[in-house]
Amino acid sequence: MEAMQYLSESPDSINSSSNDQPVSNRNLNRSQRIAEKEKRKNEAEDPFVAAVKYFSDVEAGTPVMGNDVFEGNLVVVEKVAYAEGLPPDAISVMLEFAMSLRMGTSLCPRVLKCLIPATVVPQDAVVRAVAWLGVSKIPISTQVLFIKWVLTVFDMIDAKDQLRAIYGFIFSFVTEENLCPFICHLLYLLTTKQNVRVFRIRKLLDLQDRLGKQPFLLHLLSLYKVFCPELVTLSVPSRMKRGFRNHNSPWKSALAFVQKKNSAAIAPSAGVTLTIKDQSNRRKRKHCHLELPVLTCALNKESQAELSSNRKLVPLAHLRSFAELLENMHRIELPAQMGSLLSTSVALHYLDCVQEESALLRLNFWLGYTLREEFLFCRDGGATQNSDEALQFLNRLLCAHQFLQEGFSSSEGFLYKFLTVWDGCLMRPQILGLLSNIPVVPSYKMGQLLLEPLKQLYFTSSPFFKCGLLECLNGMLRNWLTWHSVYALEDNMDISISSHTSIYMTLSGLKDSVSQLVQFVDHLAVVGLQLESCHSLLLNFILDFYETVCDMFLKYGLPLVVLPSPGVFYPALLATDPVSVDRLAYIMHRYKVNLAFAKSQLKITEAFRISRQTFSDFNHYVVDMVNFLWNAKAFQSGVNVQLDEGILQRSKVPECSTSFDLVYHPAFMSYAIDFHHKCWPERKELDLSSIKHVKPWSWYVEYLFSQGYDGLELFKRTNINRWQPVKGDKEDSGTMQL
Amino acid sequence: MSLLKPFSRRPALNTATILLVEREEEFQQRLAEVLVEETAVTLNVRLAKSLPLPFENQHSRPRIDLVVFIVNLTSELSLQSARASLKYLDPGYFLGKVCFMATNARNAAVPQERLDTLRGLAASLRCTLLFAEDQTADGATNASERLLTILKVAAGLVPMTTALYLSNLTMCTVPSNTNEVDFD
């Protein structure tokens, strides 16, 4: 709707504005005069110009029947209109002629049907024609036809400011039953926040009582609700029928033909340099929502020139750089189509810093509608969904999200809906990208909106989807934590994630949400590892997530420490690849640093209380880790992994307690063998146990650290006080005391 | 009335059998073509328009590990047919060996009520409800991958897990208020 093909400024208007300028050069003046004369001569010969002149001068009350001059002229105009479209001034003349009923009512529809603009439609003409609606006795069917025509060419009207100025006048036509659907559509396109008034809402609600829940009324009301939620209490069904049909049937084919023919001529002059959109592969679709409109200004040059003296508004499209934006920040004129904001960085900057909400409201409304129509209730059942157009659109949206570092609320709502019917494959990178940008979800509705559908997708999909989803949730958590660290206020610890999204959340609310998310991912991780039999890739994505989690306190200032479940800890500790063990060691090191910091803070203020259970769980993990890797006492501390002695014996592994130390651990054994070769090159027999003597052991550990296992080194430094790995001597693990 | 029973036969080694039930017989064919490309296990794909299955082949029929009802949401008959077929399944199947696959869920022509009914049906039987994009090749591949994930568990080929366990994790739930979710 808003995103219909938008023609850029007409070359005519540029010419005319240049004509206004005084030309001092005498020669130029003369040559212009000659050109002018030439033009006039041509005009006299051109039957089209003559015909238009006839219609502008024709007297009221001229008979139609048997009037050959009239018939001939109209045929000329029609021929031009259907062949190449009418220029703006001809549109003005013909519209004025038709709507003033100078030659009766019967002609009106015929003239309206041939009003096919070649470039733009002058706003003045439309305003004058709307005025005629009020004074002359135009039959209802013709009035409907006229409004349909306005809707069809809406995006070609060169400016909308005067049309907006007569909003109230246009609104008064809603009571006319036959006009109502079309007037509603027109109002829908024109509405700004200032137009939403209580008396208008009341009128629409009255109409709704009389006519029933008509989709066109609902759509207009829902737009009002978007602008002024406090005024409209009506509940709008989430799934509305397509409210406004395409009314352009009488003009559609002719318009498409003319545009196609003219597009080659117009494209070079459409010089909005900042746009990213590629002009060449523009494709006309039945409902081309997904094309981001080119950013064009709502005002043409002349009216802009005259307006700039009194209202001082600067169209966003005229700004080229960030510096210009800063200068004109207070007097920006928004484009007619909000979707175009997504395509330029200046517009995104504007969205980012603007305090006034109407730009975001309009953008959100358009976006929400577009996403819903294109991805949730597709007309063709989604056959064209993987098209480049859809991908490009979502990528653009994703870029805008990443640029603004926050999501739009309409795309959030869309995602919740989409997840419940998603197959897990369609546009996966885009959907997961958008998902990781959603703002903090309050914990009480997180389960139903987000976690439940994700869980059902996760457990039925391939390990690669699992990895992708974990990465996405990791990004989501990082975003939430970043928002917290940026927006958290010192005293009342509120998180108010920017003025736009209007999410106000107390610190405890945020902590609830974050811990619910972490617990959810923990659950996904534990069961995922079990189902995929400890898939290494999956394990690495899980450890990625915990690298974010372990640093929540120090890095992001959120006083919350959540430890991984044993179902994550032990698979990582006993993993067959050394990288996982090393990363786990790093994570445990960071936990230690965070907990130590929390403990030191606790002495100062009581606000950072970490539960005793967390400290005790952490200590168990550290003791186990040191016992497994350094002390060769696997399965002996027995708090988390309690294995019956009998079972261990039945496994018939000799000395199974030593089989996970740094020498015999399946992840490190290759290093042990390598070290053995380097240390004792003369030895023929491999005797790994000799590494465990004091000297070689310390060399071996140093050797491991030198191989890039920084996590282990850090872990050793923070958690192991003294290490004398003589057999039987216990290493002291630096557990935390409360 | 002959019930289809999940444990009437012994399982064969490294073999899984899936039964695709679809009234329209469109998507099942394409799914089957993708499914049989699986090489890690011996995979039998059986197709049916509806249940009960014909009596004649009963003896040659292998043990069916997973029954999938493909429901085309644009047709009410499709849903009715799946619902009518359910009663020819032994209750043992509902311990994780039945799942629903909905197609066309994003079509504008689908009334919300039908989707809700299907969701309710799947939730009441504690079954998994998958959504699939039947129009595209990618959609069919992905749908078959997801079915394989479930099938391998249902056929007992994944250690440490059972069909009942997986279906507990993935079973469909009915949101308390489907229509008026409050996003503010």
TrEMBL record, chain A:
Keywords: Centromere, Chromosome, Nucleus. Residues 21-32 have a biased composition (Polar residues). It is found in: Chromosome, Centromere; Nucleus. GO terms for cellular component: inner kinetochore; nucleus. It comes from the Eukaryota. Residues 1-42 are annotated as: Disordered. Coiled coil: none annotated. Residues 8-20 have a biased composition (Low complexity). Residues 33-42 have a biased composition (Basic and acidic residues). It holds the Pfam family CENP-I. Belongs to the CENP-I/CTF3 family. This is Centromere protein I.
From TrEMBL, chain B:
It is found in: Chromosome, Centromere; Nucleus. It holds the Pfam family CENP-M. Its main location: nucleus. GO terms for cellular component: chromosome, centromeric region; nucleus. InterPro entries: Centromere_Cenp-M, P-loop_NTPase. PANTHER family: CENTROMERE PROTEIN M. This is Centromere protein M.
